[in-house]
Structure prediction request, 286 residues.
Amino acid sequence: MVVLVAGGSGQLGQSLQFIAVNYREIKFHFLSSSELDISDKENCEKVFQQIKPEYVINAAAYTAVDKAESEPEKAKAINVEGAKNLAETCQEFNATLVHISTDFVFDGNKTTPYKEQDAANPTGVYGQTKLDGEKAVEAILKAHFIIRTSWLYSQFGNNFMKTMIRLGKERDSLSVVADQFGTPTNAVELAKAVIAIIKKAESLANNQSALNRLYGTYHFSNEGQCSWFDFAKKIMEVNDIEVDLKPIPTSGYPTPAQRPKYSVLDKSKIRENFGIKINNWEDNVS
Prediction:
């Protein structure tokens, strides 16, 4: 089974590389943005022609949430045009696309976990481009899985956990937002879920009607919920870092982009369709 990973040097790409050794039946091709520029359709076609993937994981994205407010065209080129190019190329080469999206497609006004069918209403450029990318994939390609995730962290790339560990060692005190709620998601856990989806799809390769029922949008994060302050507290505790953590409201830490106040995701659909076991967020922080 040939699997192409776009964004192979990013956080999820590296997490997939980390566990790839456990899946000998899959031939992975991890390509960085310099090797596969998803915003360039011609480049996509050239790469697909060489690799001939059966499955494509789109882990490439413009994820600088605040920067997107001042660089909307750059965010759109990767998150919208890039998704569109991959979907069209998958269609041409008869490949299945696993496209990674985000909790930022929601406005955060709910107080119960978001289901896949809940109305999307992004509050910023990043969320809007990710939603537009989802729509492009849905409109072009039947053979797709869109996976929305949240608060991604790992030992790879840049993320909240690594920032907190660094700052916790450098400073005596830290102020962290305590009135935004979501679920931290270990990128390695997401990587395992993505591969589980691909393996299930492959097992149904000769059952098109079952496959058609499986395609669509799914939510995946770890279980439970917390605030950024709670997450920071757990990170310090697990890493034995002594620092004075101070909870602050969102208003105390203004940012160019507005974050959802609540973005916990309902995972029942992915559990039911793929039998994926999901760990609590607190059990994965290391």
Notes: Residues 72 and 125 are 6 Å apart (CA to CA). The domain at 2-159+183-224+264-283 is CATH 3.40.50.720 (Rossmann fold). The longest helix spans residues 72-93. The longest strand covers residues 96-102.
